[in-house]
Design goal:
heterodimer; A: 391 residues; 4-stranded mixed β-sheet; 4-stranded antiparallel β-sheet; globular; B: 387 residues; alpha+beta; 7-stranded mixed β-sheet; two-stranded antiparallel sheet; 17% strand
Chain lengths: 391, 387
């Protein structure tokens, strides 16, 4: 057993680090560091910088632009990006929809969509959840009725992340209600500019606009935009679930946040001494750091097994649960480090106002979503209980 | 021993509950927090009409002489409704006026407060204080010779001859400062911390909004005219008022937690996934049960704190009980707020749902007037003092 990276892996990590130092634009890094929200152009700009370098979709087959990196290299790359404070790569196109197209798409669909995804020509979003279908995704009711060479789509999606930026949405729709719920679902790619598509913002409790309701009212979708056969949408969705959760632990980002937290706790004083020397606070900080240390190693152990060719299983659920718990605790300790002034979140003008400190309480609120989205942590526990423990 | 309300307490509880249901529904509150002032003077007038402002004031000055325990029901109702008006802030200021002010000051201020004509809040916290009540750097300078008094619109408060003062300093994140007509400002005078009355119009106020949609303000004073409230060191009175406020805050938290639990329970019973209500899943049932237990434990401690905070004869016992209550309330508030959002799923994250506002209020209350760490230390010290 050797728990260290190999010399090659360390050299690779240094290469990524050096490149990030030289190519991650300072203004984007600054926005991320100040917890500012990133706009469509910010996100696409970073996507395109990576695309120009050839690193935007490392896991894709080489013929489509992949790098040929193994799972550990991919992990190193992603964690280094997170640690450096790079904007997130929005996964809906290059990670999720691409996975589906590469596995189930026709050659025409692959040629039509993959290069545009790679270059960041289109912004993608994911149309899964509906008002009545969250954890029980298979109960979805958005209907697609075949009329000649089109589907006519009627219904509603909800919690649709960044739909207000999106050019395209991939959707699970019901094409047959006369069969078992899972068997009547199909997977459609829908141009957001099609008449009948309406996006309505859903404001979250931190005041931010990141999710939406998306309404479909007689939306005509060409049949050639269906991926895989009619009625095979559930197979596609299940395949995709693994991809959604591959990098859910977000170790690199959490490491950076932990450093920020330590800096904040050193800068704040309590009873005339730095807060970081306060035993109660320091103990909580240490427990969190130990948990993160353990999760990093757990993550690497799972990756090592994947490298040996074992398919990913319930392990990704474990990473999702513990990774999001760590992210949430980081935001909570950050808010607590700021102290009573963290309650102030907005200035109506004048005086000393620290906009970064004012982000901490809303951020704590916002991060409650992480244990709800992408398969709630309750669903992840069900998956582990069933798949891994046989309960 | 008696845990149910007295007849008077029951009547107050009923009238507050009716008011909150009729005039302070979630939509009404949404309009209030979106308004320019961020609070409703109309609601304020109704609170005064119901006698809730006069309730704790001394009978000598138009009040009913109510104790903290008599405020349990109103505070719970306001916690449920997520009231943004300066009720608790005003009660704390009135308490300081009653404890520290001269007869003349009490007569001039307390009836006006009780009738809802005058809003006074306590401006105490300063940058970097965290929860340390003795961290006061605002300075006071006596002005000699004396002027006739401080004139302010609506009220005339004669100062005692020769002791009008000037304050210089900054106060940070003062809840409800923008709602106030007058401020009680703490300032350092040698080893003492003293209190002063200041007209809000005489300070520079930078308005802020809190996580839970309260209005607050950063205050700057530069040679600001001030009238002393009391002659002596006010630290014991400040500590007592903070404990009084903390006990009432605990009651407010119980109201908010009760709402969070009711809303979550309703959601578990009505939200269907996999063809059944999600409340039929045992894993979720157990979590709901734990939330209910937490709330009951918190309710017990809030009652205890409100019952004992007025018994000022033994400050050590007061500190011990209030800190114990705040520890329980803060832990329960964290757990219940987080679980209520989690069990609501995505809906719990939405600004459109009241439970997300309750989450924010509980997050704030858990840290207001001392976070868990502060009260753990304080409890330990008070226990050591008892021996």
């Amino acid at each position: 057993m050797d728990l260290d990276y190999s010399a090659e892996e360390l050299a690779f990590r240094d290469e990524v680090r050096t490149w990030l130092r030289a190519n991650l634009p300072e203004d984007l890094r600054g926005k991320v560091a100040r917890y500012e929200s990133l706009g469509r152009e910010d996100l696409l700009r970073w996507h395109r910088i990576l695309a120009d370098k050839g690193w935007v979709a490392p896991w894709w087959p080489r013929e489509w632009g992949g790098t040929g990196w193994d799972v550990v290299q991919r992990y190193i790359f992603e964690e280094e990006c997170g640690y450096a404070g790079a904007p997130p790569l929005i996964p809906f196109g290059i990670t999720m929809c691409a996975a589906v197209l590469l596995r189930f798409g026709t050659p025409e669909q692959q040629r039509r969509f993959l290069p545009r995804m790679y270059r960041g020509d289109d912004f993608w979003c994911q149309g899964y959840s509906e008002p009545g279908s969250g954890s029980d995704l298979a109960s979805l009711r958005t209907r697609a009725v075949r009329e000649g060479d089109h589907y006519v789509v009627n219904g509603q999606k909800t919690w649709t992340t960044l739909a207000h930026y999106a050019d395209w949405i991939f959707c699970l729709v019901r094409t047959d209600s006369g069969v078992k719920a899972q068997e009547g679902i199909s997977f459609l790619l829908i141009d957001m500019k099609t008449p009948g598509v309406t996006v309505r913002p859903l404001i979250l409790m931190d005041g931010g606009h990141e999710v939406n309701e998306v309404f479909f009212d007689g939306v005509r979708v060409p049949v050639e935009n269906r991926v895989h056969n009619e009625g095979m949408g559930w197979t596609v969705a299940k395949y995709l679930l693994g991809h959604e959760r591959m990098n859910t632990a977000r170790i690199g980002t959490s490491k950076r946040e932990l450093e920020n937290l330590k800096e904040a706790a050193a800068a704040q004083s309590k009873g005339g001494r730095p807060l970081i020397e306060d035993v109660r606070f320091r103990d909580r900080l240490t427990r969190l750091e130990v948990e993160l240390m353990a999760l990093e190693l757990t993550n690497l152990r799972f990756l090592d097994q994947l490298r040996e060719g074992r398919p990913p299983g319930a392990e990704v659920s474990m990473l999702k649960i513990r990774g999001t718990e760590i992210q949430q605790m980081l935001t909570q300790l950050m808010m607590d480090a700021i102290g009573p002034e963290a309650r102030i979140v907005r200035s109506l003008g004048g005086g000393d106002f620290d906009p970064v400190a004012a982000e901490m309480a809303p951020r704590y609120c916002n991060y409650r979503k992480t244990s709800i989205y992408a398969g709630s942590n309750e669903i992840q526990r069900n998956i582990i209980a069933k798949m891994s423990l046989g309960l | 021993m008696r845990f149910d309300y007295t007849e008077e307490q029951r009547l107050v509880a009923e009238s507050v509950r009716r008011f909150v249901q009729q005039d302070y529904g979630f939509e009404a509150r949404r309009r209030i927090i979106a308004s320019a002032e961020g609070w409703s003077r109309e609601v304020w007038a109704t609170i005064a009409e119901l006698g809730l402002l006069a309730l704790p004031l001394p009978t000598l000055h138009g009040g009913f002489g109510g104790r903290a325990i008599d405020l349990l029901a109103p505070m719970e109702a306001f916690g449920d409704a997520l009231l943004v008006e300066p009720y608790l802030s005003t009660l704390v200021a009135a308490r300081l006026i009653e404890r520290c002010g001269s007869e003349v000051q009490q007569a001039a201020l307390l009836p006006a407060i009780g009738e809802g004509r005058l809003v006074v809040v306590f401006a105490h916290a300063e940058a970097g204080a965290r929860h340390d009540l003795s961290h006061v750097a605002t300075t006071v300078k006596p002005v000699i010779p004396a002027k006739a008094g401080i004139q302010s619109p609506g009220s005339v408060i004669p100062a005692k001859a020769g002791i009008q003062s000037h304050l210089t300093g900054k106060k940070r994140g003062v809840l409800h400062a923008p709602c106030a007509d007058k401020l009680i400002v703490s300032a350092r005078d040698g080893n003492d911390v003293r209190l002063f009355l200041v007209d809000r119009a005489d300070v520079t106020l930078h308005e802020r909004v809190t996580l839970d949609n309260l209005r607050a303000g950063d205050i700057e004073m530069r040679e600001t005219p001030a009238q002393p409230l009391g002659e002596r060191d006010a630290m014991p009175a400040i500590e007592e008022a903070a404990d009084y406020a903390t006990a009432l805050l605990c009651a407010e938290a119980v109201g908010a937690m009760t709402y969070a639990n009711e809303a979550t329970l309703e959601y578990l019973k009505t939200r269907k996934q996999f063809g059944v209500p999600i409340g039929s899943f045992q894993a979720l049932q157990h979590r709901m049960v734990d939330m209910v237990i937490e709330c009951e434990q918190a309710r017990s401690m809030a009652s205890l704190a409100c019952a004992r905070v007025d018994a000022a004869s033994d400050p050590v016992a007061r500190v011990r009980i209030v800190s114990a209550a705040k520890i329980k309330i803060a832990d329960a508030a964290s757990r219940i707020s987080q679980e209520s959002v989690q069990l609501h799923g995505g809906m719990g994250m939405s600004d459109e749902l009241k439970v997300s506002h309750t989450f924010r209020r509980l997050t704030a209350i858990a840290r207001e007037l001392g976070d868990v760490d502060y009260h753990l230390d304080r409890f330990a010290r008070s226990s050591a003092a008892r021996g």
